[in-house]
Amino acid sequence: MQTLQTDIKYLKGVGPIRGKMLGEDLKIFTLRDLLYHFPYKYIDRSVVHRIADLTEGMPHVLLKGQIVAKNVEGSGRRERLVALFSDGSGVVELVWFNSIKVMDKRLLYNHTYTLLGKPSAFNGRLNIPHPEIEDAPTAGDAPLTMLPHYHTSERMKKHGFTSRSMGELVERAFALLGQVPVEETLPDYLIRRYNLQDLNTALRTIHKPLNAAALPEASRRLKFEELFYLQLDILRTTTRRKQQNQGYPFPRVGKHFLDFYHNYLPFELTEAQKRVVKEIRADLATGKQMNRLLQGDVGSGKTMVALLCCLLAADNSYQACIMAPTEILAEQHCASLQAYLKDMPVEVRLLTGTVKGKARREVLEGVAAGKVDILVGTHALIEPNVRFLNLGLVVIDEQHRFGVKQRALLWEKNLRPPHILVMTATPIPRTLAMTVYGDLDVSVIDQLPPGRKPVQTLHYRQNDRAKLLQGIRYQLGLGRQVYVVYPLIKENEKQNLRDLETGYGRMIEALPEYRVGMVHGKMKPADKENAMQAFKRGETQVLVSTTVIEVGVNVPNASVMVIENADRFGLAQLHQLRGRVGRGAEQSYCILMTNNNLSDTTRRRMQIMVETTDGFVIAEEDLKLRGPGDLDGTAQSGMPFDLKIAHIVRDQALMEVAREAAGDVLEQDPEEALPQNQVVWKQLRMLKKGQVNLSEIS
Ligand code: ADP
Ligand code: MG
Fold first, then answer.
1. Which residues, other chains included, contact 358 with Cβ-Cβ below 8 Å and sequence gap of 6+?
2. Which one, of 390, 280, 296, 343, lies nearest residue 375 by Cα?
């Protein structure tokens, strides 16, 4: 008898070559893997569109009609076959750029075809490039209304291993399994409580739905299963960690905290800052080790929260450290902390790679003797020769630059692991935080300090360059400064430098009366540092750079951020960059430069940036546009399992239901022993086989 564990190579039609491609490209090794490789879309063949109703940007449409004219146009590489297709309601142009001869021969006049394709616009006229075209079914044919489409790799496509072949394999897999139903992966009581379809029906339906109406129920069941096991794994890990990790209790709110709060705080905290400080204080008092993620948009005032936490540590006779991703940022933090605390008996010191010799020895000795209360630095802090007398709190700024392993090293700086506060300005939608950072508790500063003017964002195209220069000159005339940022193209370092130098040259030429600086990743650290400092001090007025300025640099006098080739950046990154301006009281501007001709998605992405400055909205939109497959590296490595069918943003509501269900199971069955849950624990073990769960060592 065959089971889902059966090796894919026993399937007819999968030889060694296809088997290898399935394994290497799609991670399909067993029948189970194949059946969980879901179609990513369906073409509904029951709905025939009218040509008169077509518009640009429609998804694939089905048409029925006849060829009324055809002609091979152009020559050489521009040769193409153009045909006119009519259904009585209108006429649309079909275009083929290859297989021209074959298609030309195949297309007959006075013959009814069905045609599947995606309308697009070229020079203002609708056409359908490379449609799938076949004879219209005659009355006797059984209609397959919903045609599933499967992802395959480029390599597979080259070998003629297409979506259609995947569909055939799935059909054979079901045939091989025969009438035996696929074994259920959720316990009965959950299926009933959440009104779910059984797995067997859901799997068969998702691959071969009778009609469009059959899909939602099947997909809900499969998404629930996926999200349930994801949340179960995360919650189980979190519960275990909380039981195991004893931390240092900070029961006292003492003289440092109160003195600073009442006498030295330079501004009133925002409500959001107050709430977050309260959450952290409660955490620190429990005696469990805190692992908290502090999210707050650029400029929301995370540093002040960090400082208050450090003072709590000092009140309880513990040292604290703040770790920043770059030297510039560490220096900036250290300088502002020292300024805030200058009249208080709290010792703040800096430790980076450039603190050397005697100065370094002094800092290290002070830290070891407990004379330094707050140590600010880069990852130099992690080095083994940095020994604290009694480290109680670690604040990590801009966490995405620090790996899980580096966090783990900090744990060893004291007998019990110190409390950890990870701060990030990368807005993380709630669902993602719940999933990727499920092992961290999350606090959010969702409010900016009063009196900030939102940055005004404009989308310019190449044609607007004169207008751009005019705007820049105007702002420079007011005494402001300007950033011009270029994206890095991973594969093409030469191109990067060329783009940057072109931009630099252009600025020098256009602005002879101002000084222009340049920074990029290939420069020596010292030169980079000098160029940044010159801009900070206002000695250069324009800074042309790659994304090295992305994180945390603070130049309040800069009021213009020009982002070249803005379409090459992710939305979250554009938002980060935009956060570099708008730090002073002046109205600031962010100019997104793109080509003149844009795809729909790009136009939509730029539009979002123009419309909102809310980082959370942007992050949600970004995820919606990108899909869960393209999260950045940190997010990916944080996910215990890949999501195959559920979408981390679009399925937020179901994710919460699944999380509640998983929480119930854990609470009622902490020993993992109840008979009705055997199917749950077995399935979880199966899913986790061979996986290293990073959250367990974080
Ligand atoms: P980020 O969250 O991006 O790290 P910072 O901590 O650097 O933000 O704060 C940005 C600026 O806002 C700083 O100049 C800081 O002094 C100021 N700031 C922080 N909190 C407040 C507040 N409650 N009221 C007014 N200004 C504030
Ligand atoms: Mg900051």
1. none
2. 390
What residue ranges in 125-256 does DSSP mark as E strands? Answer: 125-129, 132-135, 146-149
Ligand nearest to the CA of 585: 1
C-alpha 692 to ligand 2 mean position (Å): 32
Judge whether residue 698 has pLDDT over 60: no
Task: Please report which ligand is nearest the Cα atom of 305.
Answer: 1
Inter-CA distances, 216 with 206, 211, 220, 283, 676, Å? 9, 11, 6, 42, 27
d(CA 605, CA 618): 9
Which of 264, 267, 446 to mutate to test ligand 1, by most ligand atoms within 8 A of the CB atom?
267
**Ligand number, closest to the Cα atom of 396:** 2
Query: Does the C-beta of 267 come closer than 6 Å to ligand 1?
Result: yes
Separation between Cα atoms, residue 468 and residue 473, nearest integer Å: 9
Distance (Å, rounded) from C-alpha 17 to C-alpha 609? 46
pLDDT at 584: 77
Question: For residue 57, is pLDDT > 80?
Answer: no
Q: How far does residue 397's CA lie from ligand 2's centre (Å)?
A: 7
Ligand 1 pocket, residue 295 CB under 6 Å: no
pLDDT in tens, 410-443: 777 888 889 999 898 776 766 677 776 666 778 8
Structure confidence by residue, pLDDT tens digits, 149-204 = 899 888 888 888 888 899 999 999 999 888 878 889 999 999 999 999 999 999 99
Q: What is the pLDDT of residues 104-128, one digit of tens each?
A: 998 999 899 988 888 988 777 889 9
